[in-house]
Amino acid sequence: FLLAETDVSSGIFSGTFQIPENYCDSSNTSQSTTGLDLTADYTDFRDASGNELEVGAGATITANSGSVSLDRQVYPVPWELTDFKDHADADVAAGSIVVTVQVSDEDYNTSPVGEDTIPTAQLVLKAYRGSYSAVITTSADLVETTADSGVFETEVTIAATTTINGTVLKQGDIITAEYTDPTDASGNSYLNTDSSTLDLRTGSLLSDKSVYVAGSDAILSIVDADLNLDSGTVESYTLNLVNWDSDAA
Predict the structure, then answer these.
(1) Residues of the chain above pLDDT 70, percent
(2) CA of 7: how far to CAs of 13, 15, 44, 159, in Å?
């Protein structure tokens, strides 16, 4: 690789190269470089005394242990249009939930200024119910959130039609993210997991006043975590979600 002077008259020369993941050992077998020492030797053919001198520097090649996390500990159960039987189905769209998976692994932060990625096969999103399980996806793209962060994210949409052992997802099912770190700090492959449950919560309807004057504004608030399908966006629903009734009419 090229050694270039850092300034016009600095006398300091620097260059960069990428440390390989594997090397050939004495038996010509490919082995991991993790845990090995890296040395660089420079021969100064004329030192201050006019003699030949060899100087060196060393460092240890290490790997970082990765981790995986889901954006919520509890997700709502995804619903289908017919689940809201008392409301206009046309105004209540199907409730697919959005799961955000985050992986932290400095080993894939190879570019200090660019946007790095992690191979898709290393992340698997599954759903569990007792001894039964179903693979939701194995092809999620993990993209670095910001340059040189070493943090990677992906979003996976889980529809109500997703099944475990032939039955759609329901309350009590477990969503699990499994990330395989091919080389952790000890140089071995390690499976990292994080899990969250699917749950149903009881909603409530609140009004800002108990008595209103004709012509005034009324503020209604629905508190229901089951309608929070995506923690990364602000969702909205039409008033057909509320059943209106009055003794007057």
Answers:
(1) 96
(2) 9, 13, 20, 58
